[in-house]
From TrEMBL:
<dbReference type="GO" id="GO:0003677">
    <property type="term" value="F:DNA binding"/>
</dbReference>
<dbReference type="InterPro" id="IPR016032">
    <property type="entry name" value="Sig_transdc_resp-reg_C-effctor"/>
</dbReference>
<dbReference type="InterPro" id="IPR049945">
    <property type="entry name" value="AAA_22"/>
</dbReference>
<dbReference type="InterPro" id="IPR001867">
    <property type="entry name" value="OmpR/PhoB-type_DNA-bd"/>
</dbReference>
<dbReference type="InterPro" id="IPR027417">
    <property type="entry name" value="P-loop_NTPase"/>
</dbReference>
<dbReference type="GO" id="GO:0000160">
    <property type="term" value="P:phosphorelay signal transduction system"/>
</dbReference>
<dbReference type="Pfam" id="PF13401">
    <property type="entry name" value="AAA_22"/>
</dbReference>
<dbReference type="GO" id="GO:0006355">
    <property type="term" value="P:regulation of DNA-templated transcription"/>
</dbReference>
<dbReference type="InterPro" id="IPR058852">
    <property type="entry name" value="HTH_77"/>
</dbReference>
<comment type="similarity">
    <text>Belongs to the AfsR/DnrI/RedD regulatory family.</text>
</comment>
<dbReference type="GO" id="GO:0016887">
    <property type="term" value="F:ATP hydrolysis activity"/>
</dbReference>
<dbReference type="Pfam" id="PF25872">
    <property type="entry name" value="HTH_77"/>
</dbReference>
<feature type="DNA-binding region" description="OmpR/PhoB-type">
    <location>
        <begin position="1"/>
        <end position="99"/>
    </location>
</feature>
<dbReference type="InterPro" id="IPR036388">
    <property type="entry name" value="WH-like_DNA-bd_sf"/>
</dbReference>
<protein>
    <submittedName>
        <fullName>Predicted ATPase</fullName>
    </submittedName>
</protein>
<dbReference type="InterPro" id="IPR011990">
    <property type="entry name" value="TPR-like_helical_dom_sf"/>
</dbReference>
<feature type="domain" description="OmpR/PhoB-type">
    <location>
        <begin position="1"/>
        <end position="99"/>
    </location>
</feature>
Length: 1011
């Protein structure tokens, strides 16, 4: 809990939530106790401070009543010494202000003020004296800030006008005016102050103010030219706003700050910008020493002296000692900032030099740049990594890497723009060059002679491509290769060995993988590579991961190739990930599912690289094992496109084991079942092959895959056979999968009670084994069927549970689908505002990730939601957009026609265009009946009943409702249109016909021929 008195009295909880204090007297009590936080205040003191000379008749009870009210919001305890407020001094802004002011952190201290101190309790007897003291402290702090910072005439003038008798403030204003060359204005301020002091106080100005006056008369306070000893800034400074703030804060708190990062990260440019913005630069007290050209440790002091325009002659053996004396003498003349740039190749000498300087010169601050820390006492490190890069987001302009590339691109090609023709290429350039400033600048320079697309296409040959640096730059900054080689040449033999072998890990690795693949007992060598900015550390929960920037990894891969070690290292790499996926794959269907997903997410790029390499090298056993080890994870995460691609490529290899071949064929057929239904005979053959080869006993996922493949290929007998087989499995997850598949079969047959029971069993079984994915999928199915009973709210609650599980699994595609269903369900319930919120959330995800498939689904959901809210024209426009975008997606296939027909039919009904609605429904009846999708056919039949009702043919509408109930087993009473039709027509009479006959009659009514 925090208490604020520097303004109106307020209280905030730990999370920042404001707390309502209550009446004025309670505020007074809180403020008084907060001035002695953590210490008891006697009751008599509190009574005097709250009521003064006019206490109430029963003051003790009145105080107790106030304390009782205050206790409802603050911890107040009665102790032998009085009442104590249980907060620490750090939790009261008055005391934080005092501490920050004493530490010289004036901006932070003054930032705590929100108005006059104790502004709302000044009527209390104790408050005026305290407020006066605090206001005086605030004024003094503001004066200190003006004294230590840059002259600000406007701010000083405004403050002086409010406090015309403060001599120190008048002196500061006079100095600031003189610094701007306004000597006469400064002298006029002195005359005004002297007159006021005489008239109002009867005193003369202080000696300090008279000294300022004399200095102004002599012209000693006039503006002076300030030496700029920093490198010339020829380009604009882009990005790094957070780093600028962080480094400035570190320099205020520490006397030695080192910017550490890989070559090309822009450390020198950043250090130069920090130094240029530092207050000492305006006073001519900043020096910049470039050490890149220094080759020997004994020449280091001479290089710094060169930056000072000083020379030391005489005995070379004495130059270093004498040089240090001269440097210390110059820097010790006042507050100073010294930039030591590029220390990595002289790290020991640079560390000793900086250490000695900060010890000898108390007012010195050192800002160093290096690829590894100086590692001396008092050093504060500021890691400088790549600029922020877009990772799939649609809007990329705000990312630092993009801003830098665009700035440099426009310098060489005026008019270059970020639009739909360039955005994707710019995104790729920034991402594949790791957001490294030098690499981006070299790439932008290529726009003189190339298009941005040509640059993107040649990034695989980046060391040849990026060679167009400034001719005046240091040699090691003119090409990308030279930048990396500068760092590479500083490594020891053991570091070189590990660094080149690390190139096999495109996704980084943990220590166990590195020691298994690259080098036993690698930790100390690895940490040395981290120190030298060859390797980055990425925290992964408690286990650190180590990775190389892509440019360094590409160079390391060249060195690995040249070493002759590549074949063996790659072999160990692929075997390692084969074993890793074998170990973790079963856990993706267990209570350790989230842990397994975390492992797969961290190792995704490595597993894909191992699998891609095994496929390309025709290593059949490895390819099959790796795909089998990662396939189910891809399905859980919704990475279907990648899964289908590798299924196709691995199945093309010769020599796959029969059980693996059969399993992958089954999975490929199943994934192709939407949008194209599998051939019945082909599906049956694949199912039988899985049984014959024993795959069903090795691959639990077949417990779902085979029954569903049989079901989708319109082979219900085979589907039931495979459900029964899976139900007898020793694997509890397979038994859950059997019930999950059984619910589809039963629902299609119209046995809704049996389907619901099967789903309930599946849900409980998935929960028992800890499989969140199975639970979420089952919840979605349950929600859809609960909705049909008319209980929209219960369906929404189930979808909400499914969404929570999808988010927990980080399965973003599933999360979008859950939001899609939620939006539609809210719309069916009539809560259109909630429906639009869910659509907006789904749109935000697909916009940030650029997921085209999910964007098609969201477009359809949005049209549905808009239509149900009565905005027919907007729904028509959205339907057109859906048709256009979905037509380019192979993912939906023939479903585009069906979904569009259903949506357009509903729009046509709302418009009164009943002939058009009837034609659209006929299309949907044909497609749903041809693929024997009974639930979907029932929904279309209900839609046809709505058309007949609108045409005034209620007798036909009633018969169609009866047929819809035969086909599905019940009507969709969660749909307000169907519910409304039933309310008008009454419950339909039972249709004593078979489902086959019901289907025939619906087709006949829709005018769909059997040809």
């Amino acid at each position: 809990m925090r208490v604020a008195l520097l303004g109106p009295t307020t209280v905030a909880a730990e999370d920042g939530t404001p707390v309502d204090i209550g009446g004025a007297r309670v505020r007074m009590l809180l403020a008084r106790l907060a001035l002695d936080p953590g210490r008891p205040v006697p009751a008599t003191t509190l009574i005097d401070d709250l009521w003064g000379e006019r206490p109430p008749a029963d003051a003790v009870n009145a105080l107790q009543s106030l304390v009782s009210r205050l206790r409802k919001i603050c911890p107040v305890a009665l102790e032998p010494g009085g009442y104590r407020l249980g907060v620490a001094t750090e939790d009261v802004d008055v005391f934080r202000f005092d501490r920050l002011r004493a530490a010289g952190r004036l901006d932070e201290a003054l930032g705590l003020w929100r108005g006059e101190a104790l502004a709302d309790v000044r009527e209390a007897p104790f408050a005026q004296v305290v407020a006066t003291r605090l206001d005086e402290a605030r004024l003094a702090a503001e004066e200190d800030r003006f004294r230590n910072g840059e002259p600000d005439v406007a701010a000083l003038t405004a403050m002086y006008e409010r406090h015309p008798l403060r001599e120190r403030l008048a002196g500061l204003l006079m100095r600031a005016l003189c610094a701007q060359g306004r000597q006469s204005d400064a002298l006029r301020v002195y005359a005004e102050v002297r007159a006021r002091l005489a008239d109002e106080l009867g005193v003369d100005p202080s000696q300090e103010l008279r000294d300022v006056h004399l200095a102004a008369l002599r012209g000693e306070l006039g503006p002076r030219p300030v030496a700029d000893r920093l490198p010339v800034r020829l380009t604009s400074f882009v990005g790094r706003d957070d780093e600028l703030t962080a480094i400035s804060r570190l320099l205020a708190e520490s006397r030695l700050v080192t910017l550490v990062g890989p070559g090309g990260a822009g450390k020198t440019r950043l250090a130069t910008e920090v130094a240029a913005r530092h207050p000492l630069h305006g006073r001519g007290r900043v020096w910049f020493a470039a050490l890149a050209g220094v080759r020997a440790a004994e020449d280091l002091a001479g290089a710094v002296l060169g930056a000072f325009d000083l020379r030391v002659g005489g005995d070379p053996m004495r130059r270093t000692a004498e040089g240090m004396d001269r440097i210390a003498e110059v820097l010790g003349a006042g507050e100073s900032l010294l930039v030591l740039d590029n220390c990595e190749h002289l790290i020991g000498a640079a560390a000793g030099f900086a250490d000695e300087l900060v010890r000898r010169v108390p007012q010195l601050r050192v800002l160093a740049t290096s690829r590894e820390p100086l590692a001396i006492d008092g050093e504060s490190l500021c890691p400088i990594g790549p600029l922020a890069v877009p990772n799939g987001q649609a809007g990329v302009e705000a990312f630092g890497a993009v801003r830098l590339f665009l700035d440099r691109a426009r310098a060489v090609r005026p008019g270059f723009r970020l639009d739909e023709t360039t955005a994707e290429d710019v995104r790729q350039i920034c991402r594949r060059l790791d957001g490294m400033p030098l690499a981006l600048e070299l790439a932008a320079a290529r726009l003189r002679s190339m298009t941005v697309r040509q640059i993107t296409q040649r990034l695989d040959d980046r060391f040849r491509l990026l060679t167009s640096g400034s001719r005046t730059a240091l040699p090691r900054q003119r090409t990308l290769r030279a930048v990396v080689e500068w760092s590479w040449d500083l490594l020891t033999e053991e570091e070189l060995l590990l660094a080149r072998r690390l190139a096999v890990f495109p996704g980084g690795a943990d220590l166990a993988a590195i020691e298994e693949v690259c080098l036993p007992d690698a930790l100390y060598v690895l940490t040395s590579l981290v120190d030298k900015s060859i390797v980055d550390v990425v925290e992964q929960d408690a286990e650190p991961r180590y990775r190389m920037l892509e440019t360094i990894r590409v160079y390391a891969a060249e060195r690995l190739e040249a070493s002759g070690e590549k074949h063996e290292v790659v072999r160990r790499f692929r075997r390692y990930y084969l074993e890793l996926t074998r170990r973790w794959e079963p856990l993706t269907r267990s209570a350790r599912q989230l842990e397994a997903i975390g492992v797969y997410e961290a190792e995704q790029d490595n597993v894909v690289a191992a699998l891609r390499g095994a496929v390309d090298d025709q290593e059949v056993e490895l390819a099959g094992g790796l795909l089998g080890g990662v396939f189910w994870y891809w399905l859980v995460k919704g990475d279907n496109e990648r899964a289908e691609t590798f299924l196709r490529e691995v199945l093309a290899l010769d020599g796959l084991p029969d059980d693996v071949n059969a399993t992958f064929r089954a999975m490929r057929l199943l994934m192709a079942a939407v949008p194209a239904l599998p051939d019945t005979a082909e599906a049956a053959q694949v199912v039988d092959d899985c049984v014959r080869t024993g795959a069903t006993g090795k691959w639990p996922s077949l417990a779902i895959a085979l029954p569903m493949l049989a079901f989708l290929s319109q082979n219900p007998d085979l589907a039931r056979r495979e459900v029964a087989r899976a139900a007898r499995s020793e694997d509890p997850w397979a038994r859950a999968g059997a019930n999950w598949a059984l619910s589809f079969v039963l629902a299609d047959e119209g046995d809704l009670d049996g389907a619901e029971a099967a789903r309930d069993r599946a849900y409980e079984q998935f929960l028992a084994v800890g499989d969140r994915w199975g639970s979420a999928m089952t919840l979605g199915m349950k929600a859809a069927f609960v909705s049909q009973t008319g209980d929209n709210q219960a369906a929404i609650e189930l979808y909400r549970k499914g969404l929570a599980v999808a988010l927990e699994l980080r399965s973003w595609d599933d999360a979008v689908q859950q939001r899609w269903h939620l939006a539609v369900e809210y719309a069916r319930m009539g809560d259109h505002a909630a429906a639009e919120r869910e659509v907006a959330e789904a749109e935000r995800y697909v916009r940030e990730t650029g997921n085209d498939q999910m964007s098609v689904l969201v477009d359809y959901a949005k049209a549905d939601v808009v239509l149900r809210s009565g905005r027919v024209a907007q729904a028509r426009d959205l339907s057109t957009r859906f048709r256009e975008t979905a037509a380019t997606s192979a993912w939906l296939g023939s479903f585009v026609t069906e979904w569009t027909a259903v949506l357009d039919a509903r729009i046509a009904i709302a418009d009164g265009r009943l002939g058009e609605a009837e034609a659209c429904v006929a299309v949907a009846v044909r497609t749903t009946s041809e693929r024997s999708d009974m639930p979907d056919l029932s929904a279309v039949t209900e839609l046809l009943a709505l058309v007949r009702h609108a045409q005034g043919r209620d007798d036909v509408a009633a018969r169609l409702l009866a047929l819809a109930r035969v086909i599905r087993g019940r009507l969709d009473l969660g749909d307000p249109d169907v519910r409304g039709l039933v309310a008008v027509l009454g419950e339909p009479e039972p249709a004593e016909v078979s489902r086959t006959e019901a289907l025939r009659r619906v087709r006949e009514e829709a005018g769909v021929s059997d040809d």
